[in-house]
Amino acid sequence: MDSGKFVRVREAKRVPYHLVRLFAKKSIIVAKVLLIMRKKSFWIFAFSALLLAGTDPTWAQNQSEGKKLYLTYCSSCHGDNGKGDGPAAQSLPVKPVNHTAGAVMNQLTDKFLMEIISKGGSAVGKSPMMPGWGGQLKENQLRDIVAYVRSIADPPYKPSGK
Ligand code: HEC
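^ thats the input. predicted complex w/ heme C below
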């Protein structure tokens, strides 16, 4: 009888209550996290955090992003391929340059391109039909566009030149 009690007490002592409690706490945390993950906002947050983590903080110039912007904002006049043959180009009194013509485009500095794209043709003494985009597009987007415009030049643009 005595020894039986002794064994029971010892068995009871062997149950690792601290671990049981820890496990219970952890499962509550896991359950809470699962609940949060069921919310749409969590995924939006997680996804944007991932996107931000993937972006270079210096806003590296991104040609493919620039191409998308070009097709959205510029191709109506400049054409899908930058050849100056967009649907609106016919009615322009001053025609845009063919942006793939490296011989012409490579003479233009990055500064000039940024300026005419952000402030418009009139700001650089060119046709006011070229609108300024600085109000709509962010600086990094303008740089992406310049990177794209540079990438379609033939002969290719050599940054060391200017
Ligand atoms: C409404 C028509 C129109 C739209 C839209 C337009 N442009 Fe232009 N762009 C022009 C015209 C016209 C000129 C020619 C200006 C001149 O030579 O006097 C021009 C000139 C330029 C030039 C100087 C070289 C050249 O082609 O003569 C660059 C670079 C340029 N545009 C980039 C862009 C970019 C980038 C976008 C989009 C963000 C854009 N343009 C949207 C009409 C447009």
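The chain has a mean pLDDT of 87.
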